[in-house]
Amino acid sequence: MQKLTSLAILSLLAACQSPAELPLIGDVFAPRSADEALEPYYRTLPDDFFPRAPAGRPLDASKPLTRILVASCFDEEKSDSAAMRSLAGEDADLFLMIGDNVYGDRDGPAYVNNQPELNELRASFSDLAAREDFKAVRAKFPMMVAWDDHDFGANDAGRDFPFRRLAERIHERFWGLENEDVGAYPGTYYARTFGPEGQRTQVIVLDTRFFRSPLTPTDAWNQKGKERYLPSADPEQDMLGNDQWTWLENRLQDPADLRLIVSSVQVLPTVHGYEAWSILPIEQQRLYRLVRETEAKGVVFVSGDRHSGFLYTSNTALPYPVSEITASSLNVSFAATTEETDTVQVGAGYPPENYGAIGIDWTAGTVSLAIHANSGERVRELTASFR
Asked: What is the pLDDT of residue 69?
């Protein structure tokens, strides 16, 4: 294929979910956006075009979960990761790798560099697959995965990213999801339930990229509370897209005793102006309302993205107290301390390299949410009831 050279064409934005069939007017291919225009080419790409993760352990839905590891923000180009090595020494039933699993846009957005084949992103996943520390973790734990902007293909991007359909294929094929339910529809959201009745944990992995509207830029760059974006009251701005919202409503009505809702960006906090559900407050309230209306019990939010570990508990978002663990980052730390404090925050944030752990006590009906230093030491923890 001759690479696209017109930024005017590449900046056409995708405003709706990918159709199952190519858009036609009569017998003529009639794309409505840049990503639709690229779709016929992407369908011709051979299997060896896509990097693959090492074989992992299968999920076992029959066994109850008692300990889950959580991590995000991993720079595959760094030569050593103490946090990843510590993870490989842990005992757990499941590992959630929840976004920025690689940094595949370090050279800038692919649409600026005229790379519709997402060469850098594919190379980043190949580098991740070759790492011995990642291989050890992959071999030890069953995994579920979410993506965030840097393994989506462009910093802070959403549905306006013109190469999102190829990014989705790269993600799903790397993680071995292309032949599962998530591989059959646009977006990377999916859910799995583990354990017998009375000990059922549902893990809901949201896609906060593929369908998300452009955000409202800040009017005061790096000013506290306005760092990158401003909250918007625009009802047309969307986080999940219509189909994913409907899917989530259905999943919240599935039988479960404990529900982990994985969002690559933070859900509960409102104090900062980085990407978060609070930047789309109508959508944030829609999420809370959906949990209330479906009467979904036992919700815990799980997030990454922030390059700092945080713990939160809100007594007002849902009809019952709800907690959130933000585990970030594995090896992309920018500070030793943080003064950030949110009204729902529990204790100080932890910016050095870290990962998270979720312990489940089925007898007591409680979860422990813990942040671990890259050495494995537990540095922050809270315990909450899910009954």
From this structure: 99
